[in-house]
Amino acid sequence: METINNIVNRKACDNMTIYCFNYSEYQKRGNVIMIDKIYQEEFAEKVINSPNTVVVDFFADWCGPCKMLSPVLEKLASINPDVDFYKVNIDDNPSLAEKFEVMSIPNVVIFKNGQAVDRSIGFVSEQQLQEIISRNR
Known about the structure:
- The protein is an alpha/beta fold.
- 34% of the residues lie in helices and 30% in strands.
């Protein structure tokens, strides 16, 4: 399988490196596992009552770092088949965001046995998220 890094363009700009992910190219190559969006009505069934470790990405459509994190989570979903991955839009589900104390996004919460056991706030690398997932299996 081709890695995300093989299709990321690097551009120099004002002494910073900007990573531009070509999502449509990645999608064309068949490497995408789409992560289901879930809503409050199904949250208990899919997350709280799941026998698996569950990764929930609390996001918003207008959030730039959330958009950058999506392909990272999709890749992690493809290499962690024993873990369930879901997305919760905080604008559509404000009570879930409040219940799980989501104050900043992206906010990735790891659930195990129905409990929030770990979280990552802001954009983080694939390696950092994989470490969080691995320690909470």
